[in-house]
């Protein structure tokens, strides 16, 4: 009985988030058409059968999220866990930030970055306003709005999609079953503000967790958010995922969520190669990113609209890329993949 009530509460929460996300996007698009018509995104209408497909995948995602929590892979409380007060306080800032986002989109200005950024410390592909975001990934202001912006973009399904890395990660870590849980090291590559680390910490409370990202501002935000819990703080390291400051074979698990589509093809391969290097033989890589044309052709219009609305310079190349081939080229075996709504999750093992 208690379980049924909790499940209903979870579904109601997700419905609420979905309504807020849809309403926010609808109102902001209409406003932009009035205020900055030159830059207003020219999206394609979603065909009714695709809408039905998206709704069915949305429901399937919430079902699997609930089932895996019930099966004990992570606590049910995680399904409700978000910094609600913090997000409510920041929501007006998302609106206040919008005129500058519209201006950048209208002017096709994608290199509008803080002047104090030492550009030589970053790869050129990184120095852009991904999503037309103010300051790109390079300020505390950007980091403070990011989680909320992603929640709105995904209609509240960002964390349920991130949680899909947990099951394959736990399965992969069984290769080290003889070791104490506290001896396992798991790295989250491009951890951003730490939302994936937060999910991993709930599923693997004893493991040594580590997050890497290029943005010191995003890592500061991750530190702020993750240290609100009394459990051990994951190690947070600034670095380029193409050449990570970790020893060869030093990790038993690696996750990487929503990075691949923001990289040019060569960097994508370099990151996968470096994930292979830092894993111990037998270790598991779990990659999560957008679905692609080959596995989800029925969602092509949604993928196209994403690229039309946001500055995502490498997305078109990404959705046609062969990630399985890249994983094989790096040396991985046992490659498999599964889609959950708009996210595809690849699992691969270092032989
Ligand atoms: C779309 S965000 C995803 C963040 C996080 N994984 C999540 O689920 O929200 C992409 C992240 O990748 C980071 N990033 C991009 N290129 C990188 C690179 N070469 N090395 C390390 N981090 C990188 C950005 O700073 C940003 O935090």
How would you describe this structure to a colleague?
- The protein has 351 residues and is an alpha/beta fold.
- It has one domain: Rossmann fold (3-Layer(aba) Sandwich).
- The chain is built from 12 helices and 7 strands.
- The protein has a 7-stranded mixed sheet, with helices on both faces.
- The model has no long low-confidence stretch (mean pLDDT 94).
- S-adenosylmethionine binds at residues 123, 126, 137, 150, 162, 190-192, 195-196, 213-215, 218, 240-242, 257-259, 262.
How would you sum up the global shape?
globular
The radius of gyration over CA amounts to: 20 Å
**Coarse structural class:** alpha/beta
The end-to-end distance, rounded to whole angstroms, is: 45 Å
Hetero groups bound?
S-adenosylmethionine
Q: Quick one: CATH class?
A: Alpha Beta
Q: Summarize model confidence as the mean pLDDT.
A: 94
Number of helices: 12
Secondary-structure element sequence?
Answer: HHHHHHEHEHEEHEHHHEE
Residue runs with pLDDT of under 50 for 5 or more positions: none
Helix content: 40-55%
Q: Which CATH architecture is right? A: 3-Layer(aba) Sandwich
Strand coverage percent: 5-15%
**How many distinct domains?**
1
Number of strands: 7
CATH H level, superfamily name? Vaccinia Virus protein VP39
Order of strands in the sheet with the most strands? 3-2-1-4-5-7-6
Please give the largest β-sheet.
7 strands, mixed
CATH T-level fold name: Rossmann fold
